[in-house]
Write a structure and sequence with these properties.
Layout (H helix, E strand, L loop, with lengths): L13 H19 L7 H11 L14 H10 L7 H28 L2 H13 L1 H6 L6 H21 L2 H17 L3 H17 L5 H14 L1 H14 L1 H10 L4 H4 L6 H14 L5 H14 L3 H19 L11 H22 L2 H11 L2 H15 L14 H6 L8 H11 L6 E3 L5 H11 L6 E3 L17 H7 L2 E3 L9 H4 L4 E6 L2 E6 L2
Parallel strand pairs: 1-2, 1-3
Antiparallel strand pairs: 3-5, 4-5
Helix pairs in contact: 1-4, 2-3, 2-22, 4-5, 4-7, 4-17, 5-17, 5-18, 7-8, 7-17, 8-9, 8-10, 8-11, 9-16, 11-12, 15-17, 16-17, 17-18, 21-22
């Protein structure tokens, strides 16, 4: 611990402590950061940033313009490989989120241990750590969301209107990054309306908050306005709320036993430690420890709303949608630790809580190995070359994850110059990225239906595939339903010959 005086440490100064926590979190996440191009949405974000695309092709709800604007700025920073720079955005945002959570608890409780317990719990939680190591929009939302809570806390504690101004700006920025911010917006709006009715803020103050929110949300508002002009208001509002095809998932109200089981496993895997019981102690002491009942009301409402939203969300990667909930759980764990230590005043409890906070690390080392041995079912539907699904999904750090680039390089290098590769949404962006950013086999045409991006040739149909096979070597990444055109799998007309990491499509004789 760094000494700043005869009896003082760096953690006795809240500002210095904040930056110390930030530096530690940055070190962890940068060391964990993926070195290059990635699979799935992460690869798509890298591809979009490469093309300066802030809207995307999946609907406005999935545009995330603020994240892509930051990525476009990072594109011009001469620090390592382009895809790595994009991945670093998540690492930096994740570290800021961890430091912000430390700051919130430090300001709230006036003590470092509960703040450090909460911050470390967030830093080492599976989903947060995973998305801090790859190109994703989630840790940026976490950083902004927890900063909002800091501003809200400071207003409730000091009654200084400037904190509400910053709250409005931050929530607007958060909305420009992810629609999750609309849930927090609803809670803040109720709070501000009560303040206005009680004349604790004036209409001028309220107007400034709204103006700053509009300024923060400007990137998303720009997309909405341009879309409304081009496509009409109704389709634009639907796109802004649900994207192109996720209305049923967003509005889902049914739960199956499978979804409930998987969700509980997801939550447990984020907190594989007895410290999770401190969460309930934090809930118990929330109103007693809160600076005002209004702050406790908002924190509890956010916890419930984000939990319910994610728990009944019906998409394969819904484990990611618990991220705002995972930002709140460590706050309650920090409160629970403070509550317990204050009552028991036992050094043993302190040492055990600190030790238990580190338990996720060995859990993430051991669990993928055990799950693979047991062939435990995880939410992946096929095997992809250079990707061990258990390691990829269950181990959050990605510092050695060079699989996507290795796959794309080998796939492109192993086919003819006039070949056509039919790729799915998981793999297509790695292939396109390696072609365009690395200049490998640029003559090979990689076609996909994912994201509605313009293909270098027309995507084949059942009627045209035969003629295309006669003229060009045709390859698919995976001859598996859902990842390959259905007409190639139907009947007995086509066969698949493994060629390197992909498969050539041939007509049976």
């Amino acid at each position: 611990m760094v000494k700043t005086g005869s009896n003082l440490t760096i953690f006795d100064n809240p500002k210095a402590a904040y930056f110390a926590v930030l530096a530690c979190a940055l070190t962890l996440y940068i060391a964990s950061c993926a070195p290059g191009t990635l699979w799935q949405d992460s690869g798509m974000y890298q591809y979009r940033i490469w093309h300066n695309d802030i809207e995307g092709k999946l609907g406005l709800a999935l545009a995330h313009p603020l994240y892509h604007i930051i990525g476009i700025a990072a594109k011009y920073i001469p620090l390592g490989e382009f895809a790595y720079r994009v991945n670093l955005i998540s690492a930096i945002a994740g570290a800021i989120a961890v430091a912000n959570l430390f700051l919130l608890l430090r300001l709230w409780l006036g003590k470092n241990p509960p703040a450090l317990i909460g911050a470390l719990t967030l830093a080492l939680s599976w989903t947060t750590w995973q998305f801090a190591s790859i190109a994703e929009v989630y840790t940026l939302h976490s950083a902004l969301f927890i900063a909002e809570l800091v501003m809200l806390f400071q207003y409730v504690k000091t009654k200084r209107i400037g904190y509400l101004y910053l709250l409005g700006l931050l929530n607007g920025l958060a909305l420009s990054n992810h629609m999750w911010a609309a849930i927090a917006f609803a809670c803040y709006a109720v709070f501000l309306a009560v303040l206005l009715v009680k004349k604790q803020i004036g209409t001028k103050n309220f107007g400034i908050i709204v103006l700053l929110w509009v300024i923060g949300a400007a990137p998303y508002e720009y997309l909405i306005i341009t879309s409304a002009i081009q496509r009409g208001i109704v389709s634009t509002l639907a796109s802004a709320a649900f994207g192109n095809a996720w209305d049923s998932a967003v509005l889902n109200t049914s739960l199956s036993a499978r979804i409930v089981k998987e969700n509980l496993i997801f939550i447990a895997y984020n907190y594989p430690t007895p410290n999770i019981f401190l969460f309930f102690a934090g809930l118990w002491g929330l109103y007693r420890l809160a600076p005002a009942r209004s702050f406790a009301h908002i924190l509890l409402a956010l916890l419930i709303l984000f939990f319910v939203f994610a728990f009944r969300y019906d998409v394969p990667d819904r484990y990611a949608f618990f991220m705002p909930f995972y930002c709140l759980v460590p706050i309650f764990i920090g409160l629970g630790y403070h509550n317990l230590v204050r009552r028991k005043k036992s050094r043993l409890i302190r040492y055990l809580a600190a030790f238990f906070t580190l338990l996720p690390v060995p859990a993430y080392i051991i669990t993928p190995i055990m799950a693979e041995k047991m062939q435990f079912k995880i939410p992946t539907k096929r095997t992809i070359p250079y990707r061990n699904d258990y390691i990829w999904f269950l181990r959050p750090w990605n510092g050695s994850n060079a699989g996507p680039e290795q796959f794309a390089t080998e796939a492109l290098s192993g086919v003819e110059d006039n070949a056509i590769i039919l790729a799915d949404g998981t793999t297509v962006y790695a292939l396109w990225y390696v072609q365009q950013a690395k200049g490998i086999k640029t003559g090979v045409r990689v076609l996909s239906k994912h994201g509605s991006y313009e293909n270098p040739a027309a995507f084949p149909t059942k009627e045209t595939i035969g003629e295309m096979i006669a003229k060009n070597p045709i390859y698919v990444v995976s001859p598996v339903a859902g990842y390959c055109p259905d007409y190639l799998l139907e009947g007995e007309r086509y066969d698949f010959v493994k060629t390197g990491p992909i498969y050539r499509v041939v007509e049976k004789e």
